Amino acid sequence: MIRIDAIWLAVEPADMRAGMDSMLVRVVRVFGAAHPHHAYVFANRRANRLKVLVHDGVGIWLAARRLNEGLFRWPAGDEPHLQISEQQLQALVLGLPWQLPRSAGIITAA
After folding, report:
1. HSE, side-chain direction, 13 A CA sphere, residue 21
2. 48 and 72 Cβ atoms separated by less than 8 Å
């Protein structure tokens, strides 16, 4: 339904009370612009809530997720943001380790 070509993760915590317009302002501030077909992921300071803003080329989508138990594995570092894969996002939203995505048991020749 929504085409996403790139997924970006903001390292610095965000205020989860922010609505669509405030999150869009934050995207522009952190990433420089809101590009069509890109998703921008933010977490709160405690890393138990996240928001994803997607610009689909026509409008803006904003989704929120809260874990009832556990925390999202959030990166720390000097960079304000980083790009992640769709597989990494799938693991992240489940609260699983996402930094080193597994190959789902696939064995290949080197």
Report:
1. 0
2. yes
Helix and strand tally (H, E) in the chain? 2, 5
Q: Which amino acid is at 108?
A: T
Residue 23 structure tokens:
């999150």
Strands 49-55 and 38-43: antiparallel
Tokens coding 53: 């803003």
Quote the pTM value. 0.85
92: nearest Cα among 103, 104, 101, 81: 101
Angle at 46 (CA atoms; ends 42, 48), nearest 5 degrees = 70
What digits encode the pLDDT tens for the residues 40-92? 999 999 999 999 999 999 999 999 999 998 888 888 778 889 999 999 999 88
